[in-house]
Design a protein that fits this description.
Number of strands: 33
Mean pLDDT: 82
CATH topology of the largest domain: Rossmann fold
Radius of gyration: 37 Å
Strand content: 35-45%
CATH superfamily of the largest domain: ABC-type transport auxiliary lipoprotein component
CATH class of the largest domain: Alpha Beta
Number of domains: 4
Low-confidence stretches: 1-20, 474-492
Distance between the termini: 91 Å
Amino acid sequence: MSRLSLSLCFLALLLSAASSRAATVAVLPLQDVTVSRNGVNYTLTGYVRRELGTRGFTLVAEPRIMEFLVRHRIRTLGRLGSHLVEAAGRELQADLLLQGTVCQLQERPAPAVSLSLELIRTSDAATVWANTDALSASDLTSLLGLNDPGNLGDLYAVFFPRLLATIPAEVPPAPEAGTLLDIDSVILLPRHVRPGNEVSCRVRIRDMEQRITELPQLVARVGKREYPLSPDPDGYYLVARWPAADTPGEYTVSLAGRWASGRTEHAVIGSYVVDDHAPEVQLHLVGREIDGKVFFSDRLIIIPTLGDPEPVRRWEVLVIDADDEVIVRQGAAQRLPRRLTWRGQTTLGTLAPDGEYTVVFRVWDRTGLSSSASSDVSFRRTPPDISIDLVQEGRRLTVKLARNSGMPLAYWWMKVFAPDGALLRLAEGQQLPAHFSLEPAGKPEAAPLESLLVAADILGNRIRKKIKDLRRISIQDEAGEMELEKEWLEEF
């Protein structure tokens, strides 16, 4: 073989090796919406990285990716704008960027997982592959129960190879023409807005102070409408403002540049959501329900939910008495609480009197729209009032018990003791009025008969009465004790 032929073969091998170079992928941490809007799942991100590694891709090191996210102040993952995708390609020397969202992740009652992934070419921010898949234990359950998945780890061995099975081994190159707009940062506010309210866009072009006279005519394009950008007073940003549309929905904002030569270029810089619908809040009170009405004596569990779950800006709970006075007001600027517990105290820390109250829960969404739900409750903490009457016929004594006031009883019992401490009679029941009889030994004027009466209503209010001499009906009240449980997360 001639020297020229050897040279050509060697050149062909070099070209073949260059063309088959493994693409470099920057795998962003997966957004986990099962936790919160800004939730991150590093465990599943690791599974995706390992699966990509087995398919021959070169992976950008995780510390470099974290530095990039911090440097650009990226707080919400799963959906990066085109200017950030292109910045990732430059700064991380990545051909591709993989971002995704954890849509479902549960261990019980049955393991289940669902992910959505998107592979983006960093040179032009074009999506070259996307896939969404879900897998649960029931999908892999066999007829005889052999090797059935018992946890999420068992699912992952099947799920991730299947999720990434169709990812392309080779990524087609981007078109030759590229953008000349070197976008440094974009601030698009607010992310959620009411119809007609103002939306503002602030764009920073790299080296804008030196290039301000060289920039094309720039406009922010929303649908078919265009809004010119002009420098702010400090000359640091290019700014545009416009009113949000009247029609609810998500609107994409792109930056369009028109050069003097007539050439135009554009880049997607973000999106915002127009929302005209207040969140539908529902309120559920957990107490003792009697004839369709909720009662409580120790604690009332308050559970707010949203008909269509969405992040909220803040919430507030009120307790209003029968005179329309607010005795409790509590709230926070955070996500909706899973549950609250009211123990019958006012905001000042005093115990509210027995009576009828209205619980109002109000919530504000990210656009400031609010809605509320209310429910009535009856607070009863006073123990039952029981009267004792004694009828004596010779040596026979008849004890008559009656409930003067209070909630229906859960139980009652009464013990009568002889002078020597022996138990003469034990009577018990669940309803009053009631009566029972006994015949103590000795004369009617003999030593006193000590007695003990204990009763509790259906709410747990308890009374304990000690009677020194049943014949004289001299009663000493002893305050009942309530055992307070303290395992609840949020209480007031």
